[in-house]
Amino acid sequence: MVIDEPTQGRAMPNEPLYNVVLHNDDVTPMEFVVQVLQRFIGLDYEEAIKLMLRIHHEGKASHGAYTLEQAEATIAGILAFAHEHNHPLGCTLEEAR
Fold first, then answer.
1. Between the CA of residue 19 and those of 6, 16, 26, 41, 95, what are the distances in Å?
2. Band of residue 12 on the pLDDT scale cut at 50, 70, 90
C-alpha cells in the first residue's frame, strides 16, 4: 500500500503539511526499514537505502510533506506492518516547516 504522493504544491493554501518521521532503534533490521520506505513512502531501492542510513546515523528522518489525513494513514500502515513483523519501528508525525 503506497499512500498518495506527498502533496507539496497541491495542498489547500492554508492547509498545514506534516512529515512522517521514522525513528532509529537498535532492534529493527535495516533491510526491514528499507522495505517500509519502499512500500509505504514509495521510494525506489537506492533512495530507500539513503534514507534508511540517514535514519540510522541521525536518529530520525522524514521524506516529503503530506496532508494530515495522508500522514496519519501512512503512519498507521507503517506501525501495523512493523507490529505484524514484530519490529518496534517508531514512526511519528511532525508539522512540516
1. 9, 10, 23, 11, 6
2. low
